[in-house]
Amino acid sequence: MAAPPALPTSSDAPPRLVSLDAFRGLTIAAMILVNNPGSWSAVYWPLDHAHWNGWTPTDLVFPFFLFMVGMALPFSRRTTASQALRRSATLFGLGIFMAAYPRFDLAALRIPGVLPRIALCYLAAWAVRRVVGVRGQAVVAAALCVLYWVLLTRVPVPGVGPPSLEPDANLGAWLDRLLLDGHLWKQSRTWDPEGLLGTLPATATTLLGCVAGSWVRSARGANARTAGLLGAGLLLTLGGLLWDRWFPINKSLWTSSYVLFTGGMAAYLFGLVYWTCDVRGHAAWARPFVAYGRNAIFVFVASGLLLKTLILIKVAGPDGTSLSLQAYAHRTLFGSWLPPYPASLAHALAHVVGWGALLWAMDRRHVYLTV
To answer: Which residues of 353-369 are buried (b: 16+ CB within 10 A; e: fewer)?
Structure first.
């Protein structure tokens, strides 16, 4: 538990931007919203992932968070190799703990996941940033996108045949089965949306955030920094949409077109938040999201563990049948007076508001649980 310094002024720790915390907070609040519906059978389409190719607003959430992981690197105090390794290992360990909880069945433990991917991408982006400058980071991101496109569209899949972008038949799914068979996403068993090969383009997303963070930290004027974010964001977004014709935008595969599209959207939307909060000084609206952003990993882990606990606890429903505490609370608080879809959304919003209240109190007391 540690409180981040108020407004550091050394070259190693530049002043904390409201927009960094606010945009990260908006992203993690969106994660809480989409991860906690009252019923998975009653979810509005923007709050669910695209079935395969294509995208919904929900498919922007994870890449936005990785983009912010990269953006924060130029604004962090200088990190040693041992510190970076420790942070990465802690994030990976938290991900494994979340996957194992509450039964800790190691034989069927899912190893890939959101936090393990964040851990690997953070460490890779940190390492690239130590070796090359800003232009080099952009070149590495581009190279990773091209390499991934070649691997998925030009390399035959062992045991399958020609290159494929189908869920079970693509090169990434084959690699996951080869190395992590029995430890993949339980809904598929044969592939994982946070699989090993997809970490390459996900690292490119993180590096785009590094480049954006260095741009914002540069000596350019505020108008130039904002214009650069908006302009680059539009170009990347259009580039992703164009590449989608040959290499479809796909969150589960984390295709290179998805990297450009979501990286562009993140840069553009962050530019708007930066202009509003840090350039124009209109930051009052962002205070609840700043509280989310300063304890982002804590609330992601805690909310995930709470949901698993609520599902684990069984209670008797009104008709005497056994219900999870999560289902009982949903039916009692929302399902009893709202139609299914509004009830499910209200349940998710209650989680966002409830966690927001706790994070607000923690922020007021300068309590920050960081890795």
So the answer is: eebbeebeebbeeeeee
Domain interval for residue 340? 9-48+284-371
Question: Does residue 2 lie in a domain region?
Answer: no
CB neighbour class for 189 (10 Å; exposed up to 12, middle 13-18, buried from 19): middle
Given this model, what pLDDT does residue 217 score? 94
Q: At what angle do helices 81-100 and 114-131 cross, to 10 degrees?
A: 170
Residue 293 sits in the same domain as residue 272: no
CB 89 within 8 A of CB 95: no
Residue 116 lies in a domain: yes
Strand partners, 85: none
Rounded distance between C-alpha atoms, residue 229 and residue 87, angstroms: 28
Q: How far is Cα 155 from Cα 164, in angstroms, rounded to an integer?
A: 9
What is d(CA 158, CA 180) in angstroms, rounded to the nearest whole number? 16
* Strand boundaries in the chain, DSSP class E: 314-316, 322-324
Statement to judge: residues 108 and 217 lie in one domain: yes
How many C-beta atoms surround the C-beta of residue 9 within 10 A?
Answer: 8
Q: What are phi and psi of 207, to 5 degrees?
A: -65, -35
Nearest to 66 by CA among 138, 101, 117: 117
132 domain-assigned? yes
Distance CA(158)–CA(54), nearest Å, equals: 27
Residue 12: Cβ within 10 Å count: 9
Contact present, 213 and 134 (Cβ < 8 Å): no
Q: Is residue 168 part of a domain?
A: yes
Q: At which residue do the structure tokens 């990465």 appear?
A: 88
275 and 297, same domain (yes or no): no
Stretch (H or E) spanning 145: helix 134-154
Record the pTM: 0.93
Tell me: the pLDDT tens digits for 216-266? 999 999 999 999 999 999 999 999 999 999 999 999 999 999 999 999 999
Confidence of residue 351 (pLDDT cuts 50, 70, 90): very high
